[in-house]
Amino acid sequence: MSNEEHEEGIELPAPTLWPLLAAFGMTLGFAGLVTHPFVSVTGIVCFFVAGFGWWREVLPHQHEELVPLVPVELRAKPVQPVTASVETLDLGEEGHRMRLPTHVFPLSAGIRGGIVGGIAMAITAEIFGFFVFDSLWYPVNLLAATAMPSLASADTSVLIRFDAAALGLAILIHAILSLLMGLLYAVILPIFAKSPAIFGGIIAPLLWTGLLSTGLGVINPALADRIAWEWFAASQIAFGLTAGFVIARMERIETLQSAPLAVRAGLEMKTPSKGDQ
Question: What is the count of structural domains for the chain?
Answer without folding.
Answer: 2
